[in-house]
Amino acid sequence: MLSFLSSCSPKQQRKAATKPTTAPSPLITPKLDPNMSAFDKIFEYVDANEKYYIDRLAEVVAIPSVSAEAARRPDVVRMGEWLVKELKALGATVNVHHPGKQTIEGQQLDLPPIVLGTYGTDPAKKTICVYGHYDVQPAAREDGWDTDPWTLVEDAKGRLIGRGSTDDKGPVISWLWVIAAHQKLGLDMPVNLKMCFEGMEESGSEGLDEFIIAEAKGDFFKDVDAVCISDSYWLGTKKPCLTYGLRGVSYFMVEVSGPGKDLHSGVFGGIVHEPMSDLFAVFSKLVSADGKILIPGIYDDVAPVTDAEDKMYGTLDFSLNDIHEAVDSKVTIHKTEKEALMARWRYPSLSIHGIEGAFSSPGSKTVIPAKVIGKFSIRSVPNMEPAKISELVKTFVNAEFKKIGSKNTLSIDCGHAGKAWVADTNHYNYVAAEKAVERVFKVKPDFIREGGSIPVTLTFQDALQTNVLLLPMGRSDDGAHSTGEKIDKENYIGGIKLLAAYLHEIALVA
Question: What are the boundaries of the region Disordered (predicted)?
Fold first, then answer.
Protein backbone atom coordinates (compact mmCIF):
# COMPACT_ATOMS: atom_id res chain seq x y z
CA MET A 1 0.00 0.00 0.00
CA LEU A 2 1.25 3.46 -0.82
CA SER A 3 1.79 6.28 1.58
CA PHE A 4 0.37 9.66 0.59
CA LEU A 5 2.40 12.88 0.83
CA SER A 6 0.93 16.33 1.12
CA SER A 7 2.86 19.58 1.00
CA CYS A 8 4.80 18.69 4.12
CA SER A 9 8.52 19.05 4.82
CA PRO A 10 11.08 16.59 3.44
CA LYS A 11 11.56 15.23 6.96
CA GLN A 12 7.81 14.64 7.33
CA GLN A 13 7.71 13.12 3.84
CA ARG A 14 10.43 10.65 4.76
CA LYS A 15 8.44 9.57 7.79
CA ALA A 16 5.36 9.14 5.61
CA ALA A 17 7.01 6.76 3.15
CA THR A 18 6.19 3.12 3.88
CA LYS A 19 7.01 -0.19 2.28
CA PRO A 20 4.35 -1.65 -0.01
CA THR A 21 2.31 -4.52 1.34
CA THR A 22 3.07 -7.97 -0.04
CA ALA A 23 -0.44 -8.45 -1.42
CA PRO A 24 -1.75 -5.98 -4.03
CA SER A 25 -5.32 -4.73 -4.06
CA PRO A 26 -7.74 -7.23 -5.63
CA LEU A 27 -8.64 -6.91 -9.29
CA ILE A 28 -12.10 -5.57 -10.02
CA THR A 29 -14.18 -6.50 -13.07
CA PRO A 30 -16.80 -3.74 -13.45
CA LYS A 31 -20.25 -4.37 -14.91
CA LEU A 32 -20.07 -3.25 -18.52
CA ASP A 33 -22.62 -2.67 -21.24
CA PRO A 34 -22.13 -5.54 -23.71
CA ASN A 35 -22.71 -3.08 -26.56
CA MET A 36 -19.66 -1.01 -25.59
CA SER A 37 -16.66 -1.01 -27.91
CA ALA A 38 -13.55 -2.96 -26.96
CA PHE A 39 -11.79 0.35 -26.37
CA ASP A 40 -14.39 1.57 -23.87
CA LYS A 41 -14.49 -1.76 -22.04
CA ILE A 42 -10.72 -1.75 -21.60
CA PHE A 43 -10.67 1.90 -20.50
CA GLU A 44 -13.34 1.34 -17.83
CA TYR A 45 -11.57 -1.80 -16.63
CA VAL A 46 -8.26 0.04 -16.31
CA ASP A 47 -9.88 2.90 -14.38
CA ALA A 48 -11.53 0.42 -12.00
CA ASN A 49 -8.16 -1.20 -11.21
CA GLU A 50 -6.05 1.88 -10.69
CA LYS A 51 -5.09 0.90 -7.15
CA TYR A 52 -4.04 -2.59 -8.23
CA TYR A 53 -1.74 -1.18 -10.90
CA ILE A 54 -0.14 1.25 -8.45
CA ASP A 55 0.39 -1.50 -5.87
CA ARG A 56 2.12 -3.65 -8.49
CA LEU A 57 4.31 -0.73 -9.54
CA ALA A 58 5.31 -0.36 -5.88
CA GLU A 59 6.23 -4.05 -5.89
CA VAL A 60 8.74 -3.71 -8.73
CA VAL A 61 10.14 -0.35 -7.59
CA ALA A 62 11.06 -2.12 -4.34
CA ILE A 63 13.47 -4.36 -6.29
CA PRO A 64 16.72 -2.31 -6.59
CA SER A 65 17.72 -3.71 -9.98
CA VAL A 66 20.78 -1.50 -10.60
CA SER A 67 22.76 -3.09 -13.43
CA ALA A 68 25.82 -0.85 -12.94
CA GLU A 69 26.58 -2.10 -9.42
CA ALA A 70 28.03 -5.55 -8.77
CA ALA A 71 26.33 -5.79 -5.39
CA ARG A 72 22.93 -5.18 -7.02
CA ARG A 73 23.32 -7.74 -9.82
CA PRO A 74 21.33 -10.39 -7.89
CA ASP A 75 18.49 -7.87 -7.65
CA VAL A 76 18.57 -7.34 -11.42
CA VAL A 77 18.26 -11.11 -11.88
CA ARG A 78 15.44 -11.17 -9.33
CA MET A 79 13.57 -8.53 -11.34
CA GLY A 80 13.99 -10.64 -14.46
CA GLU A 81 12.62 -13.66 -12.60
CA TRP A 82 9.64 -11.56 -11.49
CA LEU A 83 8.80 -10.87 -15.13
CA VAL A 84 9.19 -14.53 -16.08
CA LYS A 85 6.78 -15.55 -13.32
CA GLU A 86 4.19 -12.93 -14.28
CA LEU A 87 4.36 -13.76 -17.99
CA LYS A 88 3.91 -17.47 -17.32
CA ALA A 89 0.92 -16.70 -15.09
CA LEU A 90 -0.64 -14.89 -18.06
CA GLY A 91 -0.17 -17.96 -20.25
CA ALA A 92 2.63 -16.52 -22.36
CA THR A 93 5.32 -18.75 -23.79
CA VAL A 94 8.52 -17.64 -22.05
CA ASN A 95 12.14 -18.17 -23.02
CA VAL A 96 15.17 -16.77 -21.26
CA HIS A 97 18.42 -15.94 -23.05
CA HIS A 98 21.60 -15.68 -21.00
CA PRO A 99 23.94 -13.29 -22.86
CA GLY A 100 27.16 -14.32 -21.08
CA LYS A 101 29.42 -12.73 -18.51
CA GLN A 102 30.80 -9.30 -17.71
CA THR A 103 33.60 -8.00 -15.52
CA ILE A 104 32.41 -5.23 -13.22
CA GLU A 105 34.21 -3.79 -10.18
CA GLY A 106 36.82 -6.53 -10.58
CA GLN A 107 34.24 -9.33 -10.45
CA GLN A 108 33.12 -11.59 -13.27
CA LEU A 109 29.33 -11.65 -13.18
CA ASP A 110 26.60 -13.22 -15.25
CA LEU A 111 24.79 -10.71 -17.44
CA PRO A 112 21.09 -10.45 -16.52
CA PRO A 113 18.75 -12.60 -18.60
CA ILE A 114 16.95 -11.30 -21.67
CA VAL A 115 13.32 -12.25 -21.00
CA LEU A 116 11.37 -13.23 -24.12
CA GLY A 117 7.61 -13.65 -24.00
CA THR A 118 5.24 -14.70 -26.80
CA TYR A 119 1.49 -14.18 -26.48
CA GLY A 120 -0.45 -15.33 -29.53
CA THR A 121 0.68 -17.05 -32.73
CA ASP A 122 -2.25 -16.43 -35.08
CA PRO A 123 -0.82 -16.09 -38.64
CA ALA A 124 -3.83 -13.95 -39.61
CA LYS A 125 -2.81 -11.24 -37.11
CA LYS A 126 0.01 -8.73 -37.14
CA THR A 127 2.90 -9.55 -34.82
CA ILE A 128 4.17 -6.64 -32.72
CA CYS A 129 7.42 -6.80 -30.78
CA VAL A 130 7.54 -4.63 -27.66
CA TYR A 131 10.82 -3.82 -25.93
CA GLY A 132 11.63 -2.47 -22.49
CA HIS A 133 14.25 -2.74 -19.76
CA TYR A 134 13.91 -3.80 -16.15
CA ASP A 135 17.20 -2.44 -14.83
CA VAL A 136 17.44 1.04 -13.33
CA GLN A 137 19.92 3.77 -12.49
CA PRO A 138 21.65 3.83 -9.09
CA ALA A 139 19.79 5.67 -6.32
CA ALA A 140 20.47 6.46 -2.66
CA ARG A 141 18.78 8.64 -0.07
CA GLU A 142 21.97 10.66 0.37
CA ASP A 143 21.86 11.67 -3.31
CA GLY A 144 19.11 14.12 -2.41
CA TRP A 145 15.94 12.03 -2.48
CA ASP A 146 13.24 13.25 -0.09
CA THR A 147 11.99 9.67 0.23
CA ASP A 148 13.43 6.18 0.01
CA PRO A 149 14.01 5.65 -3.74
CA TRP A 150 13.02 1.99 -3.42
CA THR A 151 9.64 2.73 -1.84
CA LEU A 152 6.97 4.02 -4.21
CA VAL A 153 5.27 7.08 -2.78
CA GLU A 154 2.30 9.06 -4.09
CA ASP A 155 2.35 12.76 -3.28
CA ALA A 156 -0.51 15.25 -3.13
CA LYS A 157 -0.09 16.04 -6.86
CA GLY A 158 -0.64 12.43 -7.90
CA ARG A 159 3.01 11.80 -8.69
CA LEU A 160 4.24 8.23 -8.15
CA ILE A 161 7.80 8.71 -6.88
CA GLY A 162 10.42 5.96 -6.92
CA ARG A 163 13.40 4.73 -8.92
CA GLY A 164 12.25 2.99 -12.08
CA SER A 165 8.68 4.29 -11.88
CA THR A 166 8.98 5.91 -15.31
CA ASP A 167 12.30 4.46 -16.56
CA ASP A 168 11.32 1.82 -17.42
CA LYS A 169 9.43 -0.42 -15.00
CA GLY A 170 6.10 1.41 -15.21
CA PRO A 171 5.91 1.06 -19.01
CA VAL A 172 7.24 -2.53 -19.00
CA ILE A 173 4.69 -3.92 -16.57
CA SER A 174 1.92 -2.01 -18.34
CA TRP A 175 2.19 -4.47 -21.25
CA LEU A 176 1.34 -7.22 -18.75
CA TRP A 177 -1.73 -5.32 -17.55
CA VAL A 178 -2.91 -4.97 -21.17
CA ILE A 179 -2.81 -8.75 -21.63
CA ALA A 180 -4.52 -9.34 -18.28
CA ALA A 181 -7.31 -6.85 -19.09
CA HIS A 182 -8.15 -8.69 -22.30
CA GLN A 183 -8.28 -11.98 -20.42
CA LYS A 184 -10.51 -10.65 -17.64
CA LEU A 185 -12.87 -9.02 -20.13
CA GLY A 186 -12.97 -12.04 -22.43
CA LEU A 187 -11.60 -9.97 -25.33
CA ASP A 188 -9.45 -11.42 -28.07
CA MET A 189 -5.98 -9.89 -28.32
CA PRO A 190 -5.96 -8.00 -31.63
CA VAL A 191 -2.32 -8.86 -32.43
CA ASN A 192 0.34 -11.41 -31.61
CA LEU A 193 2.65 -9.94 -29.01
CA LYS A 194 6.38 -10.56 -28.71
CA MET A 195 7.95 -9.12 -25.55
CA CYS A 196 11.70 -8.53 -25.27
CA PHE A 197 12.77 -7.25 -21.84
CA GLU A 198 16.44 -6.76 -20.94
CA GLY A 199 18.30 -6.00 -17.71
CA MET A 200 21.33 -4.06 -18.99
CA GLU A 201 19.96 -1.00 -20.81
CA GLU A 202 21.32 1.43 -18.22
CA SER A 203 24.77 -0.13 -18.66
CA GLY A 204 25.10 -0.30 -22.43
CA SER A 205 22.72 -3.19 -23.24
CA GLU A 206 25.59 -5.69 -23.08
CA GLY A 207 24.77 -8.75 -25.18
CA LEU A 208 21.44 -7.52 -26.55
CA ASP A 209 22.50 -6.27 -29.99
CA GLU A 210 24.37 -9.47 -30.71
CA PHE A 211 21.34 -11.53 -29.71
CA ILE A 212 18.91 -9.55 -31.89
CA ILE A 213 21.20 -9.67 -34.92
CA ALA A 214 21.88 -13.39 -34.50
CA GLU A 215 18.20 -14.24 -34.00
CA ALA A 216 16.67 -11.78 -36.51
CA LYS A 217 15.49 -14.64 -38.70
CA GLY A 218 14.99 -17.07 -35.83
CA ASP A 219 11.74 -18.29 -34.30
CA PHE A 220 11.24 -15.34 -31.95
CA PHE A 221 11.78 -12.38 -34.31
CA LYS A 222 11.12 -13.81 -37.78
CA ASP A 223 7.43 -12.84 -38.03
CA VAL A 224 7.66 -9.39 -36.41
CA ASP A 225 5.78 -6.74 -38.42
CA ALA A 226 6.64 -3.70 -36.28
CA VAL A 227 8.37 -2.76 -33.04
CA CYS A 228 7.12 -0.54 -30.20
CA ILE A 229 9.26 0.86 -27.38
CA SER A 230 7.88 2.78 -24.40
CA ASP A 231 11.08 4.24 -22.97
CA SER A 232 10.83 7.94 -23.80
CA TYR A 233 8.92 11.03 -22.68
CA TRP A 234 6.59 13.79 -23.77
CA LEU A 235 8.25 16.97 -24.97
CA GLY A 236 6.52 18.95 -22.22
CA THR A 237 4.09 18.17 -19.42
CA LYS A 238 0.70 18.61 -21.08
CA LYS A 239 0.64 17.16 -24.59
CA PRO A 240 1.33 13.55 -25.69
CA CYS A 241 4.02 12.90 -28.28
CA LEU A 242 5.29 10.25 -30.65
CA THR A 243 9.06 10.02 -30.89
CA TYR A 244 10.60 9.27 -34.27
CA GLY A 245 14.27 10.12 -33.71
CA LEU A 246 16.99 9.75 -31.09
CA ARG A 247 20.57 10.88 -30.85
CA GLY A 248 23.35 8.32 -30.71
CA VAL A 249 25.90 8.18 -27.90
CA SER A 250 29.65 7.52 -27.67
CA TYR A 251 30.99 7.17 -24.12
CA PHE A 252 34.68 7.85 -23.42
CA MET A 253 37.00 7.05 -20.51
CA VAL A 254 40.24 9.06 -20.22
CA GLU A 255 42.80 7.65 -17.80
CA VAL A 256 45.77 9.72 -16.62
CA SER A 257 48.33 8.02 -14.38
CA GLY A 258 51.89 8.66 -13.24
CA PRO A 259 52.89 8.26 -9.58
CA GLY A 260 53.06 4.68 -8.32
CA LYS A 261 50.81 5.60 -5.38
CA ASP A 262 48.75 8.47 -3.96
CA LEU A 263 50.95 11.31 -2.70
CA HIS A 264 50.92 13.99 0.01
CA SER A 265 50.45 17.42 -1.59
CA GLY A 266 52.60 19.12 1.05
CA VAL A 267 55.54 16.88 0.24
CA PHE A 268 55.11 16.41 -3.52
CA GLY A 269 52.88 19.30 -4.63
CA GLY A 270 54.70 21.43 -7.21
CA ILE A 271 57.43 18.88 -7.92
CA VAL A 272 55.52 16.12 -9.79
CA HIS A 273 53.14 16.15 -12.72
CA GLU A 274 49.71 15.59 -11.16
CA PRO A 275 47.22 13.34 -13.03
CA MET A 276 44.22 15.38 -11.90
CA SER A 277 45.69 18.65 -13.18
CA ASP A 278 46.54 17.01 -16.50
CA LEU A 279 43.01 15.64 -16.85
CA PHE A 280 41.48 19.05 -16.11
CA ALA A 281 43.75 20.67 -18.68
CA VAL A 282 42.58 18.24 -21.37
CA PHE A 283 38.91 18.37 -20.39
CA SER A 284 38.92 22.17 -20.51
CA LYS A 285 39.54 21.91 -24.27
CA LEU A 286 36.58 19.63 -25.08
CA VAL A 287 33.56 21.93 -24.95
CA SER A 288 32.83 25.64 -24.52
CA ALA A 289 30.60 27.17 -21.87
CA ASP A 290 27.85 27.69 -24.44
CA GLY A 291 27.81 24.00 -25.40
CA LYS A 292 29.91 24.07 -28.58
CA ILE A 293 32.08 21.00 -29.05
CA LEU A 294 35.67 22.13 -29.70
CA ILE A 295 36.93 18.94 -31.36
CA PRO A 296 37.84 19.75 -34.99
CA GLY A 297 35.71 17.98 -37.60
CA ILE A 298 33.00 16.84 -35.20
CA TYR A 299 30.26 18.80 -37.01
CA ASP A 300 31.33 17.89 -40.56
CA ASP A 301 28.86 15.02 -41.08
CA VAL A 302 25.79 16.48 -39.34
CA ALA A 303 22.75 16.05 -41.63
CA PRO A 304 21.35 19.37 -42.90
CA VAL A 305 18.00 20.60 -41.61
CA THR A 306 15.29 20.38 -44.28
CA ASP A 307 12.77 23.18 -44.89
CA ALA A 308 9.89 20.95 -43.74
CA GLU A 309 11.70 20.11 -40.54
CA ASP A 310 12.55 23.74 -39.90
CA LYS A 311 8.87 24.73 -40.14
CA MET A 312 7.85 21.96 -37.75
CA TYR A 313 9.53 23.66 -34.79
CA GLY A 314 6.95 26.43 -34.85
CA THR A 315 4.04 24.02 -34.33
CA LEU A 316 5.20 22.19 -31.21
CA ASP A 317 3.54 22.64 -27.83
CA PHE A 318 6.67 23.62 -25.93
CA SER A 319 8.18 26.52 -24.02
CA LEU A 320 11.49 27.21 -22.35
CA ASN A 321 9.62 27.06 -19.07
CA ASP A 322 9.18 23.31 -19.66
CA ILE A 323 12.95 22.98 -19.48
CA HIS A 324 13.17 25.30 -16.47
CA GLU A 325 10.65 23.15 -14.59
CA ALA A 326 12.41 19.93 -15.56
CA VAL A 327 15.82 21.14 -14.28
CA ASP A 328 14.48 23.27 -11.40
CA SER A 329 16.47 26.27 -12.62
CA LYS A 330 16.72 28.87 -15.39
CA VAL A 331 20.14 27.83 -16.66
CA THR A 332 19.26 27.28 -20.31
CA ILE A 333 21.87 28.36 -22.86
CA HIS A 334 19.48 29.33 -25.65
CA LYS A 335 17.02 32.21 -25.82
CA THR A 336 14.34 30.62 -28.00
CA GLU A 337 12.42 27.34 -28.01
CA LYS A 338 13.57 26.51 -31.54
CA GLU A 339 17.25 26.99 -30.69
CA ALA A 340 16.90 24.85 -27.56
CA LEU A 341 15.13 22.01 -29.36
CA MET A 342 17.56 22.00 -32.26
CA ALA A 343 20.44 21.84 -29.79
CA ARG A 344 18.74 18.84 -28.17
CA TRP A 345 17.65 17.00 -31.32
CA ARG A 346 19.59 18.14 -34.37
CA TYR A 347 23.12 18.85 -33.21
CA PRO A 348 25.69 16.85 -31.24
CA SER A 349 26.54 17.69 -27.65
CA LEU A 350 29.36 16.80 -25.27
CA SER A 351 28.84 16.30 -21.54
CA ILE A 352 31.43 15.65 -18.84
CA HIS A 353 30.11 13.15 -16.30
CA GLY A 354 32.63 12.52 -13.56
CA ILE A 355 36.09 11.57 -12.34
CA GLU A 356 36.93 8.18 -10.90
CA GLY A 357 39.78 8.07 -8.40
CA ALA A 358 39.35 11.64 -7.17
CA PHE A 359 38.65 12.43 -3.53
CA SER A 360 34.94 13.23 -3.20
CA SER A 361 33.97 12.61 0.42
CA PRO A 362 33.07 15.47 2.81
CA GLY A 363 35.92 17.27 4.53
CA SER A 364 39.52 18.04 3.53
CA LYS A 365 42.03 15.54 2.20
CA THR A 366 45.31 16.79 0.77
CA VAL A 367 46.01 13.84 -1.44
CA ILE A 368 47.40 13.81 -4.99
CA PRO A 369 45.71 10.83 -6.66
CA ALA A 370 48.06 8.52 -8.54
CA LYS A 371 45.49 7.80 -11.22
CA VAL A 372 42.23 9.40 -12.31
CA ILE A 373 39.69 8.39 -14.95
CA GLY A 374 37.60 11.14 -16.49
CA LYS A 375 34.31 10.28 -18.18
CA PHE A 376 32.48 12.13 -20.95
CA SER A 377 30.06 11.34 -23.75
CA ILE A 378 29.09 12.75 -27.12
CA ARG A 379 25.47 12.59 -28.26
CA SER A 380 25.54 12.19 -32.04
CA VAL A 381 23.00 12.88 -34.78
CA PRO A 382 22.42 11.67 -38.35
CA ASN A 383 24.79 11.17 -40.34
CA MET A 384 27.59 10.90 -37.77
CA GLU A 385 29.37 7.55 -37.56
CA PRO A 386 30.65 6.23 -34.18
CA ALA A 387 33.97 5.04 -35.67
CA LYS A 388 34.75 8.50 -37.04
CA ILE A 389 33.66 10.19 -33.79
CA SER A 390 36.01 7.93 -31.85
CA GLU A 391 38.89 8.65 -34.23
CA LEU A 392 38.39 12.43 -34.02
CA VAL A 393 38.10 12.38 -30.22
CA LYS A 394 41.15 10.19 -29.64
CA THR A 395 43.30 12.21 -32.03
CA PHE A 396 42.28 15.49 -30.38
CA VAL A 397 42.66 14.30 -26.76
CA ASN A 398 46.10 12.80 -27.39
CA ALA A 399 47.22 15.98 -29.18
CA GLU A 400 46.02 18.22 -26.32
CA PHE A 401 47.73 16.01 -23.74
CA LYS A 402 50.97 16.19 -25.70
CA LYS A 403 50.84 19.99 -25.56
CA ILE A 404 50.92 19.88 -21.75
CA GLY A 405 54.40 18.34 -21.75
CA SER A 406 53.53 16.05 -18.85
CA LYS A 407 55.53 12.93 -17.98
CA ASN A 408 52.32 11.19 -16.93
CA THR A 409 50.59 8.68 -19.19
CA LEU A 410 47.20 9.14 -20.86
CA SER A 411 45.01 6.49 -22.42
CA ILE A 412 41.52 6.92 -23.88
CA ASP A 413 38.90 4.29 -24.62
CA CYS A 414 35.41 4.41 -26.10
CA GLY A 415 33.42 2.15 -23.77
CA HIS A 416 30.32 1.90 -25.94
CA ALA A 417 28.87 3.67 -28.97
CA GLY A 418 25.55 3.74 -30.77
CA LYS A 419 24.34 5.58 -33.87
CA ALA A 420 21.50 8.08 -34.07
CA TRP A 421 18.11 6.77 -35.20
CA VAL A 422 15.29 8.25 -37.32
CA ALA A 423 12.06 6.44 -38.30
CA ASP A 424 9.50 6.80 -41.10
CA THR A 425 6.47 8.48 -39.53
CA ASN A 426 4.24 7.58 -42.50
CA HIS A 427 4.39 3.89 -41.59
CA TYR A 428 1.19 2.30 -40.26
CA ASN A 429 2.96 1.82 -36.93
CA TYR A 430 2.90 5.61 -36.40
CA VAL A 431 -0.54 6.02 -37.97
CA ALA A 432 -1.96 3.55 -35.43
CA ALA A 433 -0.14 5.21 -32.53
CA GLU A 434 -1.43 8.65 -33.54
CA LYS A 435 -5.02 7.31 -33.58
CA ALA A 436 -4.49 5.66 -30.19
CA VAL A 437 -3.27 8.93 -28.65
CA GLU A 438 -6.31 10.78 -30.01
CA ARG A 439 -8.62 8.08 -28.65
CA VAL A 440 -7.14 8.13 -25.14
CA PHE A 441 -6.09 11.76 -24.67
CA LYS A 442 -8.51 13.48 -27.11
CA VAL A 443 -5.71 15.41 -28.83
CA LYS A 444 -3.36 14.86 -31.76
CA PRO A 445 0.19 14.11 -30.61
CA ASP A 446 3.26 16.14 -31.49
CA PHE A 447 5.87 14.27 -33.53
CA ILE A 448 9.26 14.83 -31.93
CA ARG A 449 12.85 13.74 -31.81
CA GLU A 450 14.68 13.35 -28.52
CA GLY A 451 18.12 14.08 -27.22
CA GLY A 452 18.56 10.77 -25.42
CA SER A 453 19.83 7.51 -26.85
CA ILE A 454 18.34 4.03 -27.05
CA PRO A 455 20.79 2.24 -29.37
CA VAL A 456 18.58 -0.84 -29.62
CA THR A 457 16.08 1.14 -31.73
CA LEU A 458 18.51 1.16 -34.64
CA THR A 459 19.42 -2.47 -34.02
CA PHE A 460 15.77 -3.50 -34.26
CA GLN A 461 15.23 -1.35 -37.35
CA ASP A 462 18.27 -2.67 -39.22
CA ALA A 463 18.25 -6.30 -38.08
CA LEU A 464 14.51 -6.91 -38.42
CA GLN A 465 14.09 -4.58 -41.40
CA THR A 466 10.95 -3.09 -39.88
CA ASN A 467 9.57 0.16 -38.47
CA VAL A 468 10.28 1.10 -34.86
CA LEU A 469 7.96 3.36 -32.84
CA LEU A 470 8.71 5.16 -29.58
CA LEU A 471 5.44 5.54 -27.71
CA PRO A 472 6.05 7.64 -24.57
CA MET A 473 4.12 7.25 -21.33
CA GLY A 474 5.95 9.71 -19.11
CA ARG A 475 6.38 13.49 -19.08
CA SER A 476 9.43 15.67 -19.63
CA ASP A 477 9.73 16.43 -15.90
CA ASP A 478 9.80 12.79 -14.73
CA GLY A 479 13.48 13.01 -13.77
CA ALA A 480 14.28 9.55 -15.12
CA HIS A 481 17.96 9.48 -14.09
CA SER A 482 17.66 12.01 -11.30
CA THR A 483 16.59 12.25 -7.69
CA GLY A 484 12.86 12.07 -7.12
CA GLU A 485 12.12 10.10 -10.32
CA LYS A 486 8.36 9.86 -10.81
CA ILE A 487 5.54 9.08 -13.17
CA ASP A 488 2.29 10.97 -12.83
CA LYS A 489 -0.61 8.69 -11.93
CA GLU A 490 -2.66 9.94 -14.87
CA ASN A 491 0.24 9.14 -17.21
CA TYR A 492 0.66 5.65 -15.78
CA ILE A 493 -3.04 4.79 -15.92
CA GLY A 494 -3.52 6.65 -19.22
CA GLY A 495 -0.44 4.88 -20.54
CA ILE A 496 -1.94 1.44 -19.91
CA LYS A 497 -4.97 2.52 -21.94
CA LEU A 498 -2.68 3.93 -24.64
CA LEU A 499 -0.75 0.68 -25.09
CA ALA A 500 -3.98 -1.28 -25.35
CA ALA A 501 -5.50 1.20 -27.81
CA TYR A 502 -2.35 1.12 -29.92
CA LEU A 503 -2.56 -2.66 -30.32
CA HIS A 504 -6.20 -2.41 -31.40
CA GLU A 505 -5.54 0.46 -33.80
CA ILE A 506 -2.61 -1.29 -35.42
CA ALA A 507 -4.85 -4.30 -36.05
CA LEU A 508 -7.26 -2.02 -37.92
CA VAL A 509 -4.83 -0.17 -40.19
CA ALA A 510 -3.79 -1.54 -43.58
Answer: 1-29
Cα gap 178→500, rounded to integer Å: 6
Plot region of 474 (φ>0 → left; ψ -120 to 50 → alpha; else → beta): beta
Closest CA to 213 of 420, 465, 386, 417: 465
For 28, 61, 73, 230, 248, the CA distances from 65, given in Å and listed in that order, are 30, 9, 7, 19, 25
CA atoms within 13 A on the CB side of 434: 14
Q: What is the 3-state secondary structure (H, E, C) of 74-89?
A: HHHHHHHHHHHHHHHH
Distance from C-alpha of 232 to C-alpha of 147, rounded to nearest angstrom: 24
Q: Are 100 and 127 contacting, i.e. CB atoms less than 8 angstroms apart? A: no
- Catalytic-role residue among 55, 86, 135, 198: 135
Annotated binding site for substrate: 231, 264, 366, 379, 453, 481
pLDDT of amino acid 104: 86
b/e 30-62 (16+ beta carbons within 10 angstroms → b):
eeeeeeeeebebbbbbbeebbebbbbbbbbbbb
What is the chain's mean pLDDT, rounded? 93
Crossing angle for the helix pair 320-327 and 337-345, to the nearest 10 degrees: 60
Long-range CB pairs of 84-88, under 8 A, 24+ apart, other chains included:
84/113, 84/115, 86/173, 86/176, 87/115, 87/117, 87/176, 87/195
Which domains are delineated in the chain?
A: 3-246+421-508 (3.40.630.10), 248-302+347-418 (3.30.70.360)
Query: Bridge-partner residues for 468, per DSSP?
Result: 227
Give one word for 251, left, alpha or beta, with left for phi > 0 and alpha for psi -120 to 50: beta
Binding site per annotation, positions: 133, 167, 202, 231, 264, 366, 379, 453, 481
pLDDT at 14 over 60: no
How far apart CA 350 and CA 320 sit, in angstroms, is: 21
Residues 207-266: tens digit of each pLDDT: 999 999 999 999 999 999 999 999 999 998 999 999 999 999 999 999 999 999 999 999
Taking the C-alpha atoms of residue 286 and residue 303, their distance in angstroms, rounded to an integer, is 22
CA–CA distance, 168 with 255 (Å, rounded to integer): 32
135 is catalytic: yes
- From the list 196, 198, 177, 85, the residue with the least C-alpha distance to 135 is 198
Cβ neighbors of 169 (< 8 A, separation 6 or more) are 57, 60, 61, 79, 134, 136
Among residues 146, 154, 168, 201, the one annotated as catalytic is 201
Taking only the tens place, the pLDDT of each residue in 414-425 is 988 888 999 999
Query: What proportion of the chain, given as a percentage, has pLDDT over 70?
Result: 95
- Look at residues 456, 467, 465, 399 and name the one whose alpha carbon lies nearest to residue 433: 467
